[in-house]
Amino acid sequence: MRLTRSQLRSELLARVEEIGGEAVAHCYQCGNCSAGCPLAGEMNVLPHRVVRLLQLGQVESALSANAIWLCAACQACAARCPRGVDLSRIMEALRVVQLRRSTIEPPGLTPDTLARAPQQAIVSLYRKYGS
Amino acid sequence: MSDIQARLREIARRLLTEGHVRVFIGFGPGFEANRPVPFFAADPDAADRLLLDEFCAAGLARYVLEEVREGPVGLVARGCDGLGLERLLADHRVAREQLYVVGVSCRGVVDPDRACAAAGEEVRAARVNGETVTLITPTAERSFPRSACLLDKCLRCQDPTPRIADVLLGEAIPPGERDLAHVDAVERMPSDERYRFWARQFERCLRCLACRQVCPACNCVSCSLDRPEWLERGTGLAEQFMFHFTRAYHVAGRCVACGECERACPAGIPLGLLNDKFMKDLRDLFGVAAPHRPGDVEPLGKFCPDDPEGWHEGGEGT
Amino acid sequence: MPRIGVVVCWCGHNIAGTVDVTQVTAAAAAMPGVVYAEDYKYVCSEPGQDLIRRAIADKRLDAVVVAACSPSMHEATFRQAAAAAGLNPYRVEIANVREQCSWVHRDREEATVKAVALVQAMVAKARREEPLEALRLPVTRRALVIGGGIAGMQAAMDIADAGYQVLLVEREPNLGGRMAQLSETFPTLDCASCILTPRTAEVARHPRIELLTYSEVREVAGYVGDFRVRIARKPAYVDWDRCIGCMLCQEKCPRKVPSPFERDMGFKKAIGVNFPQAVPNRPVIDREHCTYFEKGKCQVCVRVCPVEAVDFEQRETVREEAVGAIVVATGFDVLAPAEFGEYGYGRYPDVIDSLAFERLNSSSGPTGGVIRRPSDGRVPREVVFIQCVGSRDPDRGRGYCSKICCMYTAKHAMLYRHKVPDGQAYVFYMDVRAGGKGYEEFVQRTVEQAGALYLRGRVARVYPEGDRMLVRGVDTLSGQTVEVAADLVVLATAAVPRGDARELAQLLKVGTDAHGFYNEAHPKLRPVETMTRGIFLAGAVQAPRDISETVAQASGAASKVLALFSQEELVADPLVAVVDETRCAGCFLCRPVCPYQAISTRVAGNREVATVNPGLCQGCGACAVACRSGAMALKGFTDEQILAEVEALCLRTGSPG
Amino acid sequence: MEYRYFPGCTLHEQARNFDITARESARELDIALVELDNWQCCGAVFPLATDALINLVSPYRALASAHAAGFDLVTLCSGCLNVLRRTNRLVATDREAREKLRDFVEMDYAGERRVYHLLEVLRREVTFETLRSRVKRRLTGLHVAPYYGCLLLRPPEEMEFDDVEAPTVMEDFLRALGAEPVDYPFRTECCGAYVALREAKTQAAAQVVRSAAAAGAELVVSSCPACNYNLERVHPTLPVVYFTQLLALALGRDGAFAGQVPDPTPLLRGKSLLPEVS
Amino acid sequence: MSSDWQPRIVGFACRWCTYAGADLAGTSRLEYPATVRLVRVPCSGRVNPSFVLRAFQRGADGVLVAGCHPGDCHYTSGNLFTRRRFSLVKRFLEYLGLEPERLRVEWISAAEGQRFAQVIREMTDDLCRLGPNRKMREEP
C-alpha cells in the first residue's frame, strides 16, 4: 500500500479521533486488547489491527471491518491497555462515523428473541447499531 | 484589681529582698492618674509603689531585653506581655531562667483619651467588666460599651492570659483566634484607592523608629535598614515604602499582635493593618495560627511539600 | 574606587550582528570606575585572553568585566586568564550580551541599549567586589561503598588496588547481591557463581577493604572530603569471631523457613547462610522465625555449636566513620507480585518470575538445577515466558524499559532447552532488545538452535485449566489470538528500585527520578556522578542495567574517587555565606532554612552568634534572606552587589551609574 | 438508610423477579428503597462518543431528581449502574457537559449524589456480618458460581466497584448466605451482551458457563439481565439466577424462581432450601 | 500610552534552571521583547523580597522572580522557601496598591527556553496595557 501524508492526516481520521476522544498514535501495537477480547474469535480484523489500520490512515478498511460491529463495549481492552488507550471509544467512533454517513439496515432480531430478550439487551443493541 | 495589686507588691518585695531578681518591672504612677508609666523597682521599698489598674497601657516585654544584661529580672505580665517574652525567648535574646514572670489575666486597658471623650470629663478610675466598662469621673460613675473606652489593641486581643508565668494571679482565660476583618476592609478597596490610602499613611511617618523600639520581634542587635545601601536617611515616598514594607515583612510570622507598634506611633499610622495582612495570608495559605505562637521554628523558616502558590489569584480586591 | 576594565566581544558576527559593540564600548568607557574599555572579535580566543592579561598588567586593573556569551560558557576561561595575570579570579564578571541579548532581539537600537545596561550592572557589581580566595578543604583518603553486589565489589577493588582504604557496607550477611541468585549469565552462559565467588573471596581477603556485612547506613553528614557516616551492624545473634563456619547449627536447626533468596521456593533454616558458597561464611539467626525468640524454647544451635558462638543477647551496634567519598551501589529489586492480578502472579504457584526461574536453574537452588514446577515438582514440557510485565506500562506508572529482560529470557529459553530437550518454550514479546556485544547473535541462537517460539504480542490473561496454566495471548504478526496450555509461566517482571532507595537518597541528599532510581549529574557527560559532590553511582541503582555495564560503571565511579583522592586538598568555591558577628543577634532564624545544616553556634564575647561551616555551605543564599539584621552575607552575591545590579539595570541609559 | 431506587425498564418487564426479590429483601433488611418518581430508561449503555451528550439527558434527570429529593440512588441492573455512575462522574468533572445538561434539562445538579449498587449497600451499610446474622435459611451445600460480567467492574477508575481483576464482593455475599462460592477464571469475562442477540454462534457465554460447570458450580448468580439471558441459553442444565433471588430465599422469602429455564427449583428442593409449600 | 514606550522588566533568575532556560532561548534563537534584564542569583531562595521593591522604586515597571520547579532545586529546598515568601509578598504588594500583573513568580526549568520567552512576551503585553509604574517611588 502507498502511504501519503494526506492519507495519514485525512479529515475522516481526524473526525474518528475527535468523536472517540482517543489518539491512535498512543498505541504501540502490543496486542493486549486482541488477546483479551471475548469476541476476537469472530472478528475478521483483530482490534489491535483496526487501530493499526487507523495509524496507517486506512480509515475505509477500518470502517469496513466486522470487528466494529462485534465489539460488545465490555472495556476489557481499555482496562488492560498499557498505553491507556480506550479502544472501546475508538470502536464506537468508527460505528458512529459509519452510521452517520450511510444507511445501515437495522439488526434483524427474530420475533422469539424480541419477545424473550431483556429490554436492556435490546436497547443496547439499537443504541449501538442505530444511534 | 486592688487585691491583685497588693499580692503583686508582696511578691515583688519578696523577690527583691531575697535578691532573686535584680529589678522588678511593673507600672508606677505617671504624671496623670490615668496614665501610669513603666516602673523599675530596684529595691524592696520601691515595690510598694507598683500599681496595676485599668490604665496600664505600655507593653513591658521589650524592657527585659536591656535589663537582663545586669542580672535576673522580674516583671508583671499580661497576655500580650507573655507573648512578647515568648518572642524574645524563641529568638534566643533572653534565657528563661533570667526571668521571673508574675502572670495576670487582663480584660483590656482603657485608653484615657477615648475614655475622657466618652465621659465628657476627666476619668479618674475605671472598671472593665465583661462587655461594658464603668468610668469613674469626679461627678459620676457611668458604664459605656468596651469599644468606646479600650485601646485598639485590647479590642482585638486574643491572648488575655500569659502562657508562661512562674505564678499566675487570678484565673486563666483561654486564648481565642484573632479577628482579621479589618484587613478585609482594606483588601476590598480598588488598588489605586488602596495605594493612595497607604501613600497618605506613609507620608506622615517621621521615621522616629518608635515602632521598632517597642516591638518584641524587632529585637536585632543592628537593623539592616540602618545601612545606607538599603535605606537612605530621607523621608521621600520611596524610603517610606521601603521602611514599612521591610519592617512588616521582617516581622511576618513572628509578630505576636501585641499592638504596641500602633500604640507607640506618634503619627498614628495603622501598623497593625500591615502586620495583620501577613498574619491573614499566613493563616489562609499555610494554616498558621493568627498570631503564630512563638515555637521552635517560625512559619517562614519551614515549608510543606504541597504548599500552595499564593501568587495566582491576582486581580482586584484579593 | 577600584580600577575596572571592560572588554566587549564581537563573537564574530553573533554579538556584533545585532549589538553595536563600538557604542557599548564607548558607553562602558564613560562609566564610573572604568579606566579601560576595548572591543575585540573573539575575546575567548588566545589573543583575546592575551588582550585581557595585558590590560590587567598595563592598566593595573582591580576588576574586569567581559561582555560576551553566557557565564556558563567562558566564565572559567576568563577567570583563569585573569588569575594568570595576577588578578583575583573572582573579580571577573560576565555580561551575557549574546544568549540573553544579541541572539534573542532583532532591533539593533534596543539590543544595544540592553547590552549597555547589562554591562553597567556588571560594572556596578564589580565596583563592590572584594577578592575571594578558593577554599582549601582536607580530604579523608578513605572511601565508603554502599552495596556488596558486583558493582560495589568492583568499585571497592579498584579503589583498594589503587592503595586507598575502602569501607564496604552490605545489608545482607554475605557479598554477591543480585548476581549471587543467578545461574548462568548472558551472552557467554558462564556460570554466575564461577565469576562471582572468586571475586567475593578476593574482596574479603583484600588488606585495604574493611567488610561490614549485615550492616546498614543510618546517617550521612558532612561534605566531600569529610563525610561523617553512622553505620549500624544488625544483630546476627552469632559471634562471628568465635564462629569457625562449620554450619553444624544450620544442619541441626529444626526450624525450616521459606527463603527469600530462593524466592520462597526453597527453604532455609532459622540459623544459617543464604547459599553454600557465601562469603563471609558466617550464619545469622532470622529473629522472626526462630523458635527461641518466639517461645523461648529450643536452643538446638547453642547445644551443637562447638565454639559457643551463639549469643541471643547480641544487640545492634552503631559506629561512626569518616570517609572522603561515597559510591552508591545498592542495585535493584524485582516487581512485587501483587500488581498483576490478570496473570495470577503470587496466586498460582506455577506462575513465577524470572528470578525464581534463575533459582530453579541454579545447581545450589531449591531443585538442584533441575527445572521443576513449584506446584507438583513435575518437569514442565511447555513453558511460556511473558516479557514486559510491568515495564513499558505507563498506565501502571512505569513507562521505562527494564533493558535486561529480553536477554535473560533468551538465556532462560536456551537453558530450558539444554535441560529439557523435548520441552517447548514460548516467548511473548513486543520487541527484542539485544543491543550489547554479541547479544543479538545470542538471541538468534536461542530461536534457531533452542527452537524457542517468539510470539509478538502481549498476554491478556493467565488462568488455570485442569493442572496446567492457560495463557491467552495474541500473535500480532499473523493477526490471530493465541492460547497455550503451559505447565509453567515465567514473567519477566520490571526492574524496580530497592524498597528503601528513597530513604537512602534523602540521607545522601541525592535526587531520584519519579520511580526512585538515582539521578546522575548529567546523563551523557557525568553518568557516574551525582549533583552532590563526592557521591558517585555504580550499577542498577541509577537505572536497570546488565552486569558488563555495571562493572564498567563501577570502575568509572572508582576512577572518579581516585581523581578526588589524588589531590592534595580539595578546592572549593569560595562563594559561601559568612556571618558579620558584630551585627549577628544570635536569633538563628537562618539555621532552619539551611539545607546543608552548615550553620552552628559560636561564642563571641558574651554572646552566642551564628557561624557558617564553609565546607558544608553550597552557597544557595537562603540564609542571607532569612537574616533580618543583614549580618549574613553570601560572598559573590552580597546584598550591596545585587542592589547595585538592580539599580544599574533600571537606569535610563546615558545617566551615570 | 433511605435511598431513591432506580429499577430500570428491564426490572419492570423481563426481570420482574429481580425487582420483586430485591424489594422484599430490602424490606427484610430495613433498607428503605423508595422508587424514584417519573424515571425513564437510562439508555442501557454509556455513550462513548464525545459528542453524544443528548443520550445523558435521561440519567442526568434521574440523578437530579434524586438530588432534589435529597437521597442517594440505589440500582440493581449492572447496565443502569454503569450508565448512572459514569454520567455522575462526567457531570462532576466536566464543567462544559454539566452546564449543557443543566440548561437543557433545567434542573440543577453537579454530581453531589452517589449511585450505589445493592451489593455495595450490603457491604458498606448493612455489612456482611449483620447479613449473616439476619439469614433465616442458610444455603448450606449450595455451590454457586458468582458472575460479575463487565459493566459492574469496568472501567475501574470510574466504577470503583471492586478489584477489576480479582473482585470478592459476590463471594463474601454468598458466604454470608451460607452458600459456597465456586472459583472459576471466567467470572469477569464478557458474556457477549447485545452482540450475542445477533451472532448466535459467539462462544463468549458458552466459555463462561463451561468454566463454571467445570469448577463444580450447580448454579450461576449474576446482577445483569442481559448476562442471565445469554448464560441461560447456552447450557441445558445450569440455572442462572439473580443474587437477590438467593438473598430473598435466605431471608425466608420466596425466590420468585417460577418460569425460569433451566429451572433452579429441583436443585433447591433437592437441598431442602425451598420454603415448604403448605 | 505612546506606542513606542517599552516597559522595563527586572528578572531575578536562578542560575541552575531559569538562567539556563533563558540561555536555551538564546541558543534556540527564539525572539522575545528586549524589555527584560536578568540578575543571576545562585537560587530563587537568594531573592530578598526587598530587592523586588527596590527594583520597582528605581524604575522597573515589572519584576519577574523565577527559579526551578519544586522538587528540582539544586539546593533541594531553596525554591520551597521562595514559594512561601513570595506567596505572602505578592499579596502584600497588591495590598499596598501594586497592580497584580507587575510582579510575576514562575518556575522555569533549564529545558524551558520556550516558556521563558513566552513569560517575557506575556509580561511585556500586560505592562504595555498598564503603562509605566508610578507607585511606591518618587513621583517623576
Which terms would index this structure?
heteropentamer, B: 318 residues, alpha/beta, 3 domains, 5-stranded mixed beta sheet, 3-stranded antiparallel beta sheet, 12 helices, 35% helix, globular, disordered C terminus, C: 657 residues, Rossmann fold, FAD/NAD(P)-binding domain, 4 domains, 5-stranded parallel beta sheet, 17 helices
What does this structure look like?
The complex is a heteropentamer of chains A (about 130), B (about 325), C (about 650), D (about 280) and E (about 140). In chain A, about 55% of the residues lie in helices and about 0% in strands. Chain A has helices spanning about 5-10, 10-20, 30-35, 45-55, 60-65, 65-70, 75-80, 85-100, 110-115, 120-130. The longest helix of chain A is centred in the C-terminal third of the chain and has 15 residues, at about 85-100. Chain A is globular. Chain C has 4 domains: about 5-130, Rossmann fold (3-Layer(aba) Sandwich), CATH 3.40.50; about 140-330 and about 530-565, FAD/NAD(P)-binding domain; about 330-495, 3-Layer(bba) Sandwich (FAD/NAD(P)-binding domain), CATH 3.50.50; about 575-635, Alpha-Beta Plaits (2-Layer Sandwich). Chain C is built from 17 helices and 32 strands. In chain C, helix 1 (about 20-30) packs parallel to helix 5, helix 5 runs antiparallel to helix 17 and helix 12 runs parallel beside helix 13. The mean pLDDT of chain C is about 90. Chain D has helices at about 10, 15-30, 55-70, 80-95, 95-105, 120-125, 130-135, 155-160, 170-175, 195-200, 205-215, 225-235, 245-250, 265-270, and strands at about 1-5, 30-35, 75, 115, 145, 180, 220, 240. Chain D has a 4-stranded parallel sheet with strand order 2-1-3-4. In chain D, strands 6-5-7-8 form a 4-stranded parallel sheet, with helices on both faces. In chain D, strand 7 (about 220), helix 12 and strand 8 form a beta-alpha-beta unit. In chain D, helix 2 packs across helix 13 (about 245-250), helix 3 crosses helix 4 and helix 7 (about 130-135) packs parallel to helix 9 (about 170-175). The mean pLDDT of chain D is about 90. In chain E, helix 1 crosses helix 4 (about 115-130). Chain E has a 4-stranded parallel sheet, sandwiched between helices. Chain E has a single domain, classed as Rossmann fold. Chain E has helices at about 20-25, 50-55, 80-95, 115-130; strands at about 10-15, 35-40, 60-65, 105. Chains in contact: A-C, A-D, B-C, B-E, C-D, C-E. Chains A and D meet through helix 2, helix 7, helix 8 and helix 10 of A and helix 10 and helix 12 of D.
Poorly predicted sequence stretches spanning 5 or more consecutive residues of chain A: none
Helix content of chain A: 55-70%
Assign the CATH architecture of chain A: Orthogonal Bundle
Q: Beta-strand level of the residues of chain A, as a percent range?
A: under 5%
Brief sketch in words of this structure:
The complex is a heteropentamer of chains A (131), B (318), C (657), D (278) and E (140). Chain B is of the alpha/beta class and 318 residues long. Chain B has helices at 2-17, 63-67, 79-90, 112-119, 146-149, 152-155, 181-188, 191-203, 210-214, 237-251, 260-264, 271-286, and strands spanning 23-28, 37-41, 73-77, 99-104, 125-129, 132-136, 141-145, 167-169.
